[in-house]
Amino acid sequence: MADLAAVQAYQAAVRAAQDSASGKTPGEDEATALNFGNMVSSAIADTSNAIGQAEQMTAAAAAGEAELLDVVTAVSAAEITLETVVAVRDEVVRAYQEILRMPI
Q1: Contact, 65 vs 39, CB < 8 A?
Q2: Rounded CA gap, 34 and 54, in Å?
Q3: Which residues touch 82 (CB under 8 Å, ≥6 apart)?
Q4: What's the pTM?
Q5: What is the CA radius of gyration of the chain?
Q6: Span 2-56, pLDDT tens digits
Q7: HSE on the CB side for 66, CA within 13 Å?
Q8: Per-residue model confidence as pLDDT tens digits over 67-96
Q9: Nearest Cα to 70, choosing from 88, 47, 46, 54?
């Protein structure tokens, strides 16, 4: 479920970038910025939850209380979620650097 939320967050970021590139009105840009901020906060919270769940499953497996398959699934979901958030972060930084290089 967390990896689905991360994919949706990435898609929302792509849509927001496409909308801003197409020249939306200032009011729409402010709404997009608010939605983007909420999306980033949600993605970070989902990532934190996925990592926490993976850690709990790993501890449960070490205590002999969880199946190895469940641990591998939780760790894989956390890894995918984290990789998605890092990819979005990298694209935001790249876009910011591109904006800084634009002539005034």
Answers
A1: no
A2: 30
A3: 47, 50, 51
A4: 0.59
A5: 18
A6: 556 666 666 676 676 666 655 555 455 555 556 877 887 888 888 889 899 999 9
A7: 18
A8: 989 899 999 988 998 898 889 889 989 999
A9: 54
